[in-house]
Amino acid sequence: MQEVKARCGVDLARCYQCGECTAGCPMTPEMDAGPTKTLRLIQLGMEEALFSLNTPWLCASCETCTARCPNDIDIALVMDVVRQMARLKGKKIPIRETRVFQDVFLKSVENNGRLYEPGMIAFYNLKSGNLLHDVILGPKMLVKGKLPLLPHTSKNREKLREIFRKAEEHEKKAGEGETDSGHGESGH
Amino acid sequence: MKYAYYPGCSLKGTAIDFHTSALVLAERLGIELKEMEDWVCCGASPIHQRNPILASGVANLLLSLSEGISPQIAVLCAACYHNMKKAEVEMREDGKKRNEVEELSGIRFNPEVRTRHFLEILDQDLGLKALQEKVVKPLSELRVACYYGCLLSRPPEIAFDDPEQPTIMERILEAAGAETVPWSHRMECCGASHAVPVTDAVLRLVNDILASAREAGAEIVACACPLCQANLDMRQDGILAKLGVEHNIPAVYFTQLLGLACGATGKDVMIKKGFVSAVSLLREKNLL
Question: Which of B102, B194, B209 to mutate to test the interface with A (most CBs of A within 10 A)?
């Protein structure tokens, strides 16, 4: 669990389990643990239990927890880091749909430089196996002129792809050890 | 007042009404929004959920595209604002982070650059008095619930108003003659892009938000984010089907209401784009 600390740059021992994050989290009804217990599992080093939680995959990144944590822990970032580590370690993802959504969204951005909403939704339905998802909304949005028929592309697409490539290299290195991660380390 | 304008992807698609109404409004207010060339997607929430430094790298590219126009960047989408402002503040305050992001993106960060949300521009740069002077059709007797959602004011480091109790949208719409209602869910999350992979949770959240707005006596909800507006507007049919609750309350962009107040037509501000029509309500108030 040193890796979570290295990637977040925050010592999670600072969490004293007050429960403020869970109290304000809009997604707790769907979550199995909520943010407070998730942090506790990290403190205890219970990796297997941590990666089996649906909690990080249901986090909507609203950052209410981060804004309200009395001990200045960026809890939404911790959720990002747990998702990132699960992917890098090839863990089974408890909520497959949110992972598929993340992938098709970013693929669309990488391909075109900009997000092409209709294409992204079509790919999402294909990859999630949920072919009829939101099919009622599509035609209605077309009629309203809310869906462009062709993707917009950007001349800076190559620059964007290069940033994607470099960030991928960076995330591998950042997980190798504490020495790579920069600020906030104390565990030597 | 000249700004480098970053629309972002939604504003050229599902939120074309936000883009169009903001441009019409800006023109009437003498605010010049010059669109940055060859902008790319900011990556919204999925980008930092994948890899936080990737989000900062892309944001640094976007910040650099303001060069040659103005270091003041105008943004309308809350998710774009969040990603760009967060990276900007982090790089200005944390030298180590700045080096890391500059190296990753291959772009030098200009510390003069400022990401500004359009609400903030109206309030601080234009000023409410100047806005008031441009109002030709006050939004009289229109009871509006101002909905902030999450990403305009979280984390608190990027907020341009009180992060827990903002009043900026209320003050602006009141300057245009609207009556705003106090209500409980103005800062509650709508679930954002979870609308696609976890739809039922979003129906639950949006149902709570709309119920709270109606309970407070609002006739219409004003939004400042394309995802908030999409969820609050387009998911009302789903709420009726799944939860059996009929809201039938329009959710529009604050720029559409202000545009009308400043004399633009319904067509100018694309008022008919909403799934839940605001037309009869606005006609009743003599705004269309």
Answer: B194
